[in-house]
Amino acid sequence: MSGCRGPIEGDDDLPRVQVWVTGGREPDLLASIERGLEEEGVPWIVREAEGGAVSLAYEASRASALKIGLVLTPDRRVVIHHEQLPADEPIFDTADTTPGLARTLGSNAARLAKGTPLTPVE
Amino acid sequence: MEYVAGVDIGNSSTEVALFGRSEDGEGEFVSSALYRTTGLKGTKKNVPGVVNALSRAAETAGIEVSGIDRVSLNEAAPVIGDVAMETITETVITESTMIGHDPSTPGGVGLGSGIGVEITADPERFATEEPIVFLVPETVDFAAAAATIDDWAEAGFEIVGAIVQRDDAVLIDNRTDVEIPIVDEVAGLEKVPRSQPTAVEVAPESTGKTIDELSNPYGIATVFDLSPEETQKIIPVARALVGNKSAVVIETPQGDVEERTIPAGELEILDERGNTTGVPVDDGADRIMEAVTDSWPVADVRGESGSNIGGMLNRARASMAEVTGQAVEAIEIRDVMAVDTLVPQQVEGSVAEEHSTESAVALAAMVKTQQLPMDQIAAGLEAELDTEVLIQGVEANMAVLGSLTTPGTDHPLAILDLGGGSTDAAYMDESGAIDSIHLSGAGDMVTMIIDSELGVDDRDLAEAIKKHPAAKIEDLYRVREEDGTVSFLDEPVEPELFGRTVLLEDDGGMQAVPIDASVEGIRRTRRRAKRKVFVANAERALNLITPTRSIRRLPFVVMVGRSALDFEIPELVSEAMAEYGIVCGRANVRSALGPRNAVATGLVLSHVGSGSYLDFEIPADLSTALERTTA
């Protein structure tokens, strides 16, 4: 598997998408997002964090060597950010995300890193 | 001050050149204008467009339209062009035998061949000797599929590949201990035959390689142990899989792939001596063009009714008859141009929307009649503007006069008018006499070829692909152009454009190309279509128009017309003409207007004399208005 779970051991320079979850417990959608990333063959890392979803996603993107950060909240909001974008303008920000959409978003986060066309999200 | 306007009514745009002359006879061009042609060229419906173009020119010059003392019209060439495409081969699969689709993320690597088995099947019912390819429907989760593969492998079965309905190939590959090729996103999995010999191939990752066994007829023959006769039949399958990163081929007992030639009818070419030459369209473009050359000058062309080409020829005849009010029988088709092309078409009976490349012939026709009813337009204009309106000269002659205002030109000279519907040429000899010719095949034909070769199926998009360079959005802020140059954007691109091939529009905008084609593929197809039409027609036209029938004797060739404004057509033609050692380039009318406004400028010069714009005296037959004044 391409993913890496658990505590971060100071190797953030590895090219990985930063997936940050808030709310102190693992949301159901995380698995769907991870499947999307995995199928596209892009490595990622999951850690816990606290803060506003958009600003946190921006912070995650700055921590990612691939420049891509994803935040997942307990109320099923998913925000994907890119380091080069203005801090308050994420690429994707969806509320009440379904598992199917979550997988698409995971795959889009990976595609952003690969530079391949994204799957439309609506 | 006296004002004279030259008005050129073209197929798509109406151009005006406005000339001001003082009492002492000295004068200069004061403005130019362009407006879209209203109605079909050569009909009374053109009048509003002409009035609009004149108003614009007058406004730029700071005068009222009523201040224009005289309007010179051109006598438009009485020709129209039309285009059609005829596919001459088709591939039919009577029972599904291949899945040539190319999922973006297949899993595993290598070639595996065995019997197709539903993944939910009971292992008890199978013998362990036979290698197995699993079929995984969307109802089976990737984790369960991976576990089943491992279970069967542990039980002694040899699992050699998998075909998956969902986009799960990498997920399954990551979870199984067996290293097998996995092809996914096979939407029509239920159509895949079970219990048949099945081969799956996935090309190795990060090597830049594509599959090499299933795209090779002998590779398929090796996998399925085919006879020489059977190998001949699977050639279309192998060909359709070339360049894929992954593929599936299934052998079915009754299955058959057949490549057929569709009868496309015959073209009958009549020459002016009364001979008729018949050419079957499916013989291809070279044979058709040979017959046209042999029959030159062509008197008429007929197509078989019921074929696309026959229908197109009749349509062109009918619209010309409508414009001129003549009987359809009186309209003649004086030239056809044929180009061989390849068209991707969905395979009949396919499982995953496979396409195969079929041969087709693109055909353009040029219809000609005696004379367009220009006097009606002149009368309409006179009534509208209350000004004197003259039909000053024939389009081709006026274009030559206008083109000669290009710095660095002199006669003898030939002009190439690269239009949308036709490619026209005119030649002015040492004495100033002009001869002209109209050939079919121009911008519209290029659009049609791009449309069908790229499988765009949208004429507007094909037109945009023709007119704009392609580029790839590599990043949120980075665009790589066709030539490899990278430019950076101030604003991030929209998510819809990310990673896509786009067209760079003139105003800096970007339009996504919603087809699966690379920047290189688009560029190659676009330039080839332009070469096949315009370079071929430039050679044809110049050979026919020069008195010696040899391009090499031409000192100057000047390109004008709508397609001469294209960003690469002039350079493609110039490049080809350089081989003949002649000076060929895009016009720069009045040292400022590029290939625009040549006819309108020529009309004015024909009326007011060469002045400071031409360094020779305009011959009498070019400087007198035609005898078709308004009745």
Features:
heterodimer; A: 122 residues; alpha/beta; Rossmann fold; 5-stranded mixed β-sheet; globular; B: 631 residues; alpha+beta; Nucleotidyltransferase, domain 5; Ribosomal Protein L22, Chain A; Glucose Oxidase, domain 1; 4 domains; 7-stranded mixed β-sheet; 16 helices; 30 strands; 30% strand; elongated
List the helices and strands and how they pair.
The complex is a heterodimer of chains A (122) and B (631).
Chain A: E1 17-21, H1 29-39, E2 44-48, H2 53-63, E3 68-72, E4 78-82, E5 92-94, H3 99-114
Parallel strand pairs in A: 1-2, 1-3
Antiparallel strand pairs in A: 3-4, 4-5
Helix pairs in contact in A: 1-3
Chain B: E1 2-9, E2 13-21, E3 27-36, H1 47-61, E4 70-75, E5 79-87, E6 89-93, E7 98-99, E8 110-118, E9 132-136, H2 142-154, E10 159-164, H3 169-175, E11 182-183, E12 197-202, H4 217-224, H5 228-233, H6 235-241, E13 246-250, E14 257-261, E15 266-271, E16 276-280, H7 285-294, E17 298-303, H8 308-324, E18 332-346, E19 355-368, H9 374-385, E20 388-394, H10 395-403, E21 413-418, E22 422-428, E23 434-440, H11 443-453, H12 459-467, E24 470-473, E25 478-481, E26 486-488, E27 501-504, E28 510-512, H13 519-545, E29 556-560, H14 569-578, E30 583-586, H15 598-608, H16 620-623
Parallel strand pairs in B: 1-4, 4-20, 8-9, 9-10, 10-11, 21-29, 29-30
Antiparallel strand pairs in B: 1-2, 2-3, 5-19, 6-14, 7-13, 8-12, 12-13, 15-16, 15-17, 18-19, 21-22, 22-23, 24-25, 24-27, 25-26, 27-28
